[in-house]
Amino acid sequence: MPVVVIVAVVALIVVGAIAGHLSTRKRREAMLALATRLGLHFDPGKDRDLARRFEFLDRLRQGSNRYAFNVLTGRYHDQDVTVFDYHYETHSSDSKGHQETHHHYSSFFIIRLPASFPELTIGPEGFLSKIAQAVGYDDIDFESHEFSRNFSVRSKDKKFAYDVCNAKMIEYLLAHPDLTIEIERDALAISFSRRLKPEQIEPNLQRLTQVRSLLPEYLFARS
Predict the structure, then answer these.
(1) Which uninterrupted H or E stretch holds 168?
(2) Half-sphere exposure (CA, 13 Å, Cβ side) for 56?
(3) Which residues span the domain enclosing 123?
(4) How many other CB atoms are found less than 10 A from the CB of residue 173?
(5) pTM of the full predicted structure?
(6) Contact 71, 46 (CB under 8 A)
């Protein structure tokens, strides 16, 4: 029986490895096809420099062994865009003191802006944002109670936050309540705490460029 169990376990590991390899290859092929159709450059390899270059963004500072991969770059709707899968690791110990490594994956969409701005984060209101408020990270309130109730907005520059979250932006975000937005320096980013399917990439590129179009042009004129 022990031999049978060992063989079964090994077989499961092999099958899992093959399935993982096929899934990775299928994703890369789909991303390459998307890049070709959109006229973007595609690089499937690990890019640690890209993760370091944008590590001023909150969601790219977490954990260790950080790298981007399946990177799409180029011009989309007259904007310089960068789209990538992202990986980082966290570690924990079990009850016996054994170290465990946890792998986290997400999707990022970034537009390079023609000016530099203070940090601003906009995301769905939730348990973690309420904890952040409790320890001193104040949420900025808006005249739209529905928006304030559903979104957490933080920035040291409240005037900038109000400029970005204008009436049209608020209306758009209320219609897209899953969006998490970060603006800092010359980057405008939306991110997801999971890897999106290849067919979800272009719709979210469209949402990213729509968010960019709702930024008031006077922000760039005075920056």
Answers:
(1) helix 167-175
(2) 14
(3) 41-221
(4) 23
(5) 0.83
(6) no
